[in-house]
Amino acid sequence: MELTVLGSAAPYPRPGIPCSGYLVTGGSGALWLDAGPGTLAELQRHARLPELDGIWISHLHADHCADLLTAFYALVYADQAPSAPLPLYGPQGTAARLEGFLSNAARSPIERAFEVRELHDGQRVRLGGMELESRSVEHGMPGYAVRIDDGAASLAYSGDSAPCAALDDVARGADLLLCEADGDPPADGPRVHHSPEDAGRTAARAGAGRLVVTHVGPFLRPEEALGRAASEYAGPVEHADAGRAFSVG
Fold first, then answer.
1. DSSP string of 70-131?
2. Does the predicted TM-score (pTM) go above 0.70?
3. For residue 28, what pLDDT band results from cuts at 50, 70 and 90?
4. Bridge partner list, 242
5. Which pLDDT tens digit goes with each residue over 80-104?
6. Which of 13, 27, 125, 218 could be 150's S-S partner, Cβ–Cβ 3.0 to 4.6 Å?
7. 67-77 and 94-102 are packed helices; what angle lies between their axes, rounded to 10 degrees?
8. What pLDDT is stored for residue 175 in this prediction?
9. How large is the angle between the packed helices 196-206 and 222-230, nearest 10 degrees?
10. Residue 7 CB burial class (10 angstroms; 0-12, 13-18, ≥19)
11. Count of CB atoms situated within 10 Å of the CB of 185
């Protein structure tokens, strides 16, 4: 299995660094994992949209899903028409959100581009030789983490989430944990993200073999996030640099 970072910026893209988005290849499959702004362009360095087995979206904040809108145009009105609509896994309301943005006087035919399948806690599906298990996590809105297994290796992805038992379960014994490390927790109010220390602690609790931190906010340098995560986790810690590929397992 291989993880290619299409982008990891939060909460907006930077020059040369799109927002959250990843390409996962394993077995005979290819999966677009989150579709933040700028990731569609980077995806095309590796695969065309019709070559994907599916798309998986952790939650409906724009920095994780906005490129679905331009993907729709590529699939329906341009040169990347698929032989069948792409399976699109996303939280409840994904189809309505796309339709609301894309439609004007007439409803946009999103079913020509996507076969929308709503996520639920504990959902298991197979895509291109990979098994995906989605778990509901704590982000102040419907949000999901995912574990991906191809029979030889396992990858866990936090999406955006505060530390929680469901994420620990998803990451348990994973070869690689891709975990957000947005920054410092708020002084008051509910927690909806991991700090770098939280990412390290989640990896340690889960016994993950390797930690890759991503979604580092604008007030923290990646090197600082790495050091802070490493203070809580004894295994290898790396940053999800845009364009970098990680071999999983």
1. HHHHHHHHSS---SSPEEEEESTTHHHHHHHHH-SSS---GGGTEEEEE--TTEEEEETTEE
2. yes
3. confident
4. none
5. 999 999 999 999 999 999 999 999 8
6. 27
7. 70
8. 98
9. 40
10. buried
11. 17
